[in-house]
Amino acid sequence: MKHGATIGLVLMAGICFWQAGRLQRPLVQMRRELRLTTGEPLENTPPLVAFTTVAMGGFRGVIADLLWLRASGLQEDGKYFELVQLADWITKLEPRMKQVWAFHAWNMAYNVSVLFNNPTDRWRWIHQGITLLRDEGLRYNPGEPNLYWQLGWIYQHKISGNSDQMNIYYKRWWADEMATLFDGPRPDYQHLTGSQIQRMKDVYKLDSFLMEQIDREYGPLDWRLPQAHAIYWAWRGKKFATSFDALQLERMIFQSMADAAMEGELFINRSEQVFIPGPNLAVFEKARKAYEKAIAENPGETSIQSGHRNFLRTAVMMLFTHHRLAEARDVFADLRRRYPTPEFEQGVEPFVYSSLTTLLRNISQREATGIVLGALQQSWFWLAMGDEDRAQGFQQLARTVWREYMKTRNAPDIKERAGLAPIEQLSEQARSMVKESLTTSEAKAKLAQ
């Protein structure tokens, strides 16, 4: 009797194991679909990662916690180089811990980089922060939207922004890499070679099909500049994001679009050592729509509305000074309708001229460059049209704005900020842009003198 019961139990256990085996695959698939797992099983990992993952088992978490405690002490003591090594160990122990990847990349791009005075050394550490998130952090955590945001933030803030006094060097090095990769400001999507597509994918983790989609919706973007890459990684992270993560990534897209409108077109003249990012007004309307979409989807977010208001104010100035008067009036009407205040009651021209006198003490390097370039473009345009008096007036406006901005940037009550490119370089960029837009040889000849 006992023998029969034992056989029955063994058979029942066998049936249970068989049924569990049948259910494992669909259960794993359900976990992936419901995002109850952070990524695919670790495959083709470095030997050390594979060893710690398998051999240490549950003890990995205990060791990682102890290392985190040590890391906190190093952070407080400012021992950032030791922190780099410690964070690397933690990523080997816990490759699925998203916080350590974000912390490790931030430490290299922000804390360690600024310890160097040489821009080449700084860029090396910033580039390592990008590579760490892009090549390793997202490899082990492909469904973590925060890591996509962290990667986009390095492009948007550290490289595209001007908080780091060496930002122009970072922009130049990144532009050189991308120009070599694309052979121009953006890929020629219809004629990319197999080797180009493979290099984009293997080295930079760039999907040419996805880039083309982004260009259709938000472009044409200049992919030599960091704004396009901030948009790219935010876009890739959106499909994994919900609630706050989704809002963060959406915010990165419309903020980077606004940056692209202000400083998203690159002018390069290598023979003259000229490298100047300038306004890309071709994407302005798409940036405007990106803000409007975000406002419609997040009606309670007053910070988005505030950013939208500032964007429209700056856009009026940019469009007006670039002699796109009809667009400037259209945007101004939208600004006045959405955010009515007394300063908008007199009309677009008084608003522009009164704003110029106060903006010089508050505008950023990017905004000042846009205003100067706009005035210089109008100066060259009217010179080509034969109106030398008007051309001289805009030339004077550009030089006045340039000079006064350079004076105010070191005023005692103003936080130190980066200066502008030499006025002669900006003038040459504006002349080249106007010359390309002209259609008659006579007008072009006047600018060639």
Q: How much is the average pLDDT? A: 79
**What would you call the shape?**
elongated
Low-confidence stretches: 34-46, 48-59
* Intertermini distance: 111 Å
Instruction: State the CATH architecture of the domain at 47-142.
Output: Alpha Horseshoe
What order do the strands of the largest sheet run in, or round the barrel if closed? 1-2
How would you classify the helix and strand content by structural class? mainly alpha
Amount of beta strand: under 5%
Please tell me how large the radius of gyration is: 27 Å
Structure summary, number of beta strands: 2
The biggest beta sheet is recorded as: 2 strands, antiparallel
Summary keywords:
about 0% strand, mainly alpha, two-stranded antiparallel ribbon, Serine Threonine Protein Phosphatase 5, Tetratricopeptide repeat, about 450 residues, 20 helices
Q: What are the SSEs and their pairings?
A:
Elements: H1 2-33, H2 47-55, H3 59-77, H4 80-93, H5 98-112, H6 119-140, H7 145-159, H8 167-182, H9 194-204, H10 208-218, H11 226-238, H12 243-263, E1 265-269, E2 274-278, H13 284-297, H14 302-321, H15 325-338, H16 348-359, H17 365-384, H18 388-408, H19 423-437, H20 441-448
Antiparallel strand pairs: 1-2
Helix pairs in contact: 3-4, 4-5, 5-6, 5-7, 6-7, 7-11, 7-12, 11-12, 12-13, 12-14, 13-14, 14-15, 14-17, 17-18, 17-19
